[in-house]
Design a protein that fits this description.
This protein has 140 residues and is an all-beta fold. The protein contains no helices and eleven strands.
Length: 140
């Protein structure tokens, strides 16, 4: 699969509809909120990632207000706002504000998926969602 710089195409996205348990920004990693039908932004690599938010609600471009419906992508290729710098094919975890960040070779963290291109801070890139838990990271 080839992706062009700046292309926003998403592929084979499977979604679940839930409600925002607080304000949620576009293209962020989400975790379970205080109730079963709510999600909030993940803030740590140890947060279990449910999926990634879309481009924003119909009323608010780039955000979802508390109580807005969100279609959370839990499978496929979805756009994600990134923090720091990283490389294509690198594992992606959650950081402050639900942004993605390169996996820091640590154990006890959840991976949301794999970067489909290299990135710089603040860039929105396609990420192949493939959640997994890194229980014991072995360096080779």
């Amino acid at each position: 699969m080839a992706y062009d710089v700046g292309r926003t195409e998403e592929k084979d996205v499977k979604k679940m509809s839930v409600l925002a348990g607080a304000e949620v920004n576009a293209y962020r990693i989400l975790k379970k909120g205080s109730s079963q039908d709510e999600v909030i932004q993940a803030t740590l690599a140890t947060d279990f990632p449910l999926g990634i938010s879309g481009a924003g609600s119909l009323e608010n471009a780039e955000t979802y207000d508390d109580g807005d419906a969100i279609d959370v992508a839990y499978s496929g290729i979805r756009q994600l706002e990134m923090s720091g710098i990283g490389n294509q094919d690198g594992r992606v975890t959650a950081t402050t504000g639900g942004k993605g960040i390169a996996h820091a070779n640590a154990d006890g963290v959840y991976i949301i998926g794999y970067a489909m291109q290299s990135w710089v801070d603040g860039q929105i890139i396609p990420v192949l969602i493939d959640r997994c838990y890194i229980g014991d990271y072995a360096q080779t």
